[in-house]
């Protein structure tokens, strides 16, 4: 009989002992972390290099620039969380779930951004000789702050028993696994308590502040002018969000927004509408309108995948049907029909065409389940692309102009308002893409309303029942085929609605825009990734997932051939550590984290 014993190492801390990852006294580690954060703020007001050849001009004393601003933000977070850990009056509200884990992430964000900047300066300018004393000071104090934060005590997990007959490789795997569990425990945080009820006006002001922060972060990220700054922004934003989450601020903000869901949703659209007014030209409004098109289609797919549980791999075809239908009736000289419908009629034509195709494709195929349905929808997506490619008058009827597509689609005019012209609003010049941004914002609001109402309705509950267990749903009297067909038709109509605007934004509609997979969205693979990444079955999840999946590849173009490699690696890591998505609903969060406590507040937009 084999006896299982626990390996004992003289230098290993006792099981459950509250010690840090680094052997520094906790009181000294806390002082180093807090002081390091404060000195980091000071270091950002010093020059980090002697030449302006590095982007951002880090040569100025007394005025942070470029990446120094991100380091300044990280240092401020580290200092605030450090002071909150001391129980400083007026700062305790910053860490309702505990300060130590948040302090570690904040120190890590500051360290990573600072050392990335120092290495970028050295590599781009040709050596450490190009660094000024401010850069050395920043590197040292951020390293000091990180070491101090890692010395803060935490409860170590108990190791699993070890079989003394195991080989050296098995023992190494066991030690590595226990080491990883220890690191996870070091960065874990407690559960914040429920937020006490505040006056309605106070909670609404908090919601406004949260939305203002979100708008500021998005505007800064989309407006980063050079590659180094965007990479630094990703580092700071990622670890900074993790710090706020571990501090309990995200969950408490979620509890407050859950009490005022309607106000939060409308406030989010108002904040989004303010985005074009923060820009000096139409450059980033272009990205904004494409993000909204992508997000709207992803939200439509969320009905099919997130609510009804139908894996659709050819969903981008419905976007193409709507775009082609609208382009053919919008007065394009490439259209064989020679008609020019007004906007409202073109929208109805695009949405109706996609809905009809959704019913025609869904009727014979929705009796299939799982992988078989996915294969059929994938085939439909390819059939659509090949069909419009062959409708060139040679291989088929002359309708879509083949590979040349429908070109010269005119700009929209709504009630005499030309969306293709510049307009002055409140002293701000609004360009063409900003006009379409406002139009897509209205359409996105309509899609959100449809999603929210349908998910709360009787048919929405039937979709969820079909998704969870179709056999049990059928036994309870739900007409599974009819319910799935409605989901397919509604999702297709919403995609066609977005396609009508896409045709006018891009001027040209071609078959190559509607692939299963490609380097740029929207395509079926990216749409499905946006839904899964953001959080299936929620409103905010696909919107956030679509924004990230469009913005990050657009900003990572400097990687060239390695762009998709880096992007795919990031998705793999995210799915490994947060498989339920960025904004999960309750059911999926409990499925992936069955040992975790249920979220304190649950809403339609997530947990």
From TrEMBL:
Major localization class: membrane
Presence of keyword Membrane: yes
Subcellular location: Cell membrane
The keyword Membrane belongs to this UniProt entry's keyword annotation: yes
Membrane-spanning residues: 31-50, 70-89, 101-123, 135-154, 204-223, 229-249, 261-278, 284-306, 313-331, 343-363, 370-388, 433-451, 485-505, 525-552, 559-577
Topology class, membrane: Multi-pass membrane protein
Pfam families hit by this protein: BPD_transp_2 (PF02653)
Source superkingdom: Bacteria
Name of the protein in its database record: Branched-chain amino acid ABC transporter permease
Lineage: Bacteria, Bacillati, Actinomycetota, Actinomycetes, Kitasatosporales
